[in-house]
Amino acid sequence: MEIDIRPWGKYWVLEDAPTHKVKRIEVKPGGRLSYQYHHKRSEVWTIIEGVGRITLDGEVKDYGVGEVAQIPQGVKHRIENTKEEPCVFIEVQHGSYFGEDDIVRIEDDYNRVSDKSLLNGN
C-alpha cells in the first residue's frame, strides 16, 4: 500500500476504481488541510480516531469517532486537528475524476497553489 506524506500528515489509498476512490487519512496534531473544493467529485468523511474540526462552506463543527461529513461536489471544505492525538478518517470519493489536480485551494497553510485552469472548470 502506497503512503503519501503531506505537511499536515499522511494518507494511504485503499482502493482506486473508475467509479470511486477510498483513502485512509491521518492528520497530525496541529495539522490542517487546505480550504478547498473539487469540480469533479464529492466526498464522504468518516472519523475513525480522534476529533476533526471540519469546515463546510464556512460552517465549523467538531466531528468525533463514527461521525460522518457529507461533502457535495463544489462545496468548500477543510479538516483540522486541534487535539493532541492524531485524527484519522476514511474518505470515500464519488464522481467522474479523482486526481489530486482536482483540488482547488482557497487557503493553504503550506503555500501550495492550485492549477488555475481548474478555476475555470477545465
UniProtKB/TrEMBL annotation:
Domain Mannose-6-phosphate isomerase type II C-terminal: 6-108
Coiled-coil stretches noted in the UniProt entry, renumbered to this chain: none
UniProt-recorded name of the protein: Cupin domain-containing protein
Originating organism: Robertkochia marina
GO molecular function annotation: mannose-1-phosphate guanylyltransferase (GTP) activity
Superkingdom classification of source: Bacteria
Pfam families cross-referenced by the UniProt entry: MannoseP_isomer
A biological-process GO annotation: polysaccharide metabolic process
InterPro entries noted in UniProt: Man6P_isomerase-2_C (IPR001538), Mannose-6P_isomerase_type2 (IPR051161), RmlC-like_jellyroll (IPR014710), RmlC_Cupin_sf (IPR011051)
